[in-house]
Records
---
Amino acid sequence: MAKKKETHYSGIGGQAVLEGVMMKNKDKYAVAIRKPNGEIDVEVDEYKGVGANSKLAQLPFIRGVFAFIDSLVLGMKVTMHSASFYEEEEEVKPSKTEERIEKMLGSKADDIMMAGTVVVSVIIAVALFMLLPFFLSDFAGRYIRNASLIAILEGILRILIFLLYIVAITCMKDIKRLYMYHGAEHKCINCLEHGWPLTVKNVRRSSRQHKRCGTSFLLFVVLVSVVVFFFIRVDNMILKMVIRLALVPVIAGISYEIIRLAGKSDNVLVKIISAPGLWMQKLTTKEPDEAMIKVAIASVEAVFDWKGYIKENFGYEVDDSYMED
């Protein structure tokens, strides 16, 4: 089959989970998990998002904040779902504290604990990537009197901490397998957006980097924060910290718009802007094996009519001859 250079936006996205892949298409999502016995379990559900019925959530820059919250909530939900298969295998019993919480909160216990986990995750991320560089650069300010140099130092520290974090977790065995499933997710989307039938062979030869990846989004958050914080020139340390925290949603909104543009455009400027994120994905994605690719394909097929998509956007029907690996 001839390789097509043109690409078309598919609208699907996803994430890697424990021994599996989640794919989302509009309000519908599927989680495909490779169970301990080797079978693939596929669960399909709907997630409309926290701002589904709000016009505010559709406004440029503001919609990025809602999208970020939705990605955290849904991401935590599907991660807990994937982990449940392996908790059952290992017969992990809930602690006394977990039993008390479940008894007090009843059927809402899981949702409340998940929300709490999301909040704690955001707090840790803000403390690590926003506040820590700020405090370190403020300490350096005792020896450096130039405000511009301090702002540049804060930006460099923020980028270094982010890079060190990514490199550090890459060394973990479980994270390496997660990154392989991450690669399978990207390869499936790239395969479709190039107009290739969704087969193991075609997915394997597709790129594992994608411009709409969450890794690129996080890198843009870091880089945009460097630029935005450079122009904050107030002397009061408390006020500096409050302003930084207040601007986190703004930075997330700007970063989302950049990612959104990158996913729908292929011009030279977009390619240049996307390059750092694609480079970073070499760390956060790994080449998947055939079993992982099959899991990712199962997740796509549960929520996306890829044959209809190829016919509409690339002008040909996928028959049995295309499906031969």
Note: The chain has twelve helices and four strands.
---
Amino acid sequence: MHTSNPVLDPEHVDPPANSAFPPIPSLTEPSTFNQPKTDHRTLRRDEFWRDVPAYEKATSAEFGDHKWQQRHTVTSVKQLRETLGSRVTEAFFEDLEAGIAHAPMALRISPYLLALIDWSAPMADPIRTQFLPLRSQQQADHPMLRFDSLNEREDSPVAGLTHRYPDKALFLPQPSCPVYCRFCTRSYAVGNDTDVIEKMKLPATAARWEEAFAYIASQPQLEDIVISGGDTYNLSAGHIETIGRRLLGMPNIRRIRFATKGLCVLPQKILTDNAWLDALTGVVELGRKLHKDVVVHTHFNHANEITGFTADALGRMTERGIHVRCQTVLQHGVNDSIDAMTLLVRRLSFINVHPYYVYVHDMVPGVEDLRTPLHVAQKLERHVRGATAGFNTPSFVLDAPGGGGKRDVHTADVYDRETGISVFTAPSVKAGRKFLFFDPISSLGSDWQRRWTQPAERRAMIDDALARADA
């Protein structure tokens, strides 16, 4: 005899006796599972710059103009004193002056960024932390740090062109930026000389560019060119068009990426420099006609950097079909918390910027206070994954010191959290070699910190990690 199965009422299904599973919640009860916070959609559109004494009389049109921003860019502590007045103490300016003297990057910051800093509490502000070094917060360099930690010069067949991956090269046409990040991985070459380092010179000359173009054209395996620097924001409209058309005209090149921090530090350029945006748009459209990919790679590190100016700039780029990806740098005190990183990722997605990478901070001198241990990146990746759509979830990577290229933070062959040493391999980049990364010493236990001060102990820890990687 056939009997139909009863229709189950999901509100009244009891678990079997002695079940290890918890009771099924009532479907009529309110759930927060699909009710994420929406604060990532709230962008500043107030006249926030009026809190800075030097900008209090600036109109919206003035502050929103890229030429006004460039004219008022701050490049010295003296100029910053004149800009901020009594908003901060003299002790702060003295701390900053001492910090700059021990920093590899010169001071250069836009009015836009300065106005976004919370000057009532600047010591902990995430934007101040990235651009204005304070001597009171700087730490001694890890003994394994060095300039050009990624071996870009070693992998350069011609000056200003790094060819590490089989089908990709990095082209550095000029060495300046609209703003100087104190954590720059290319501090060996970007910006003015400082008390800490005399920079490698990469002049923006036609002869040097021709050498780079000739090499790219001679390598049939090359398909992907990243145009960086410095910053492509500091290329003229004519240079954008010249470089773009030249590369797209090579049969082997299929992809071009224009890299710029500018969308973060000076979004006004996209809004008011029509000639520059038109030139970029023309290259993107030419690429589309040739069935080639032209995109922009940018660099945001904290949700506070994204305002109404940013959204309007990205809106213009979206209207023109310009695709933008973001490469974030993981930094202590800036974005190394779950809430800060998740908010950044979701806010980027909201303004049509695809989070692409989150980099573990490179091992460059002068910014040890900003570095984080590898396990922080691993933890953040676990929490960010699932917070938004997969295509808006960044890969958390470590750019292996010594030129091993980008490695997923979970793929270390060895990671000893006590010594802070991790070992990576890169079979498709430099087979047979091992690449070492070192957590900041301040993140280690006191006994291990002491061992790092002793060269013999240091060598023994490194040798042990390499031996374990061979096991």
Note: The first strand starts at residue 161 and ends at 162.
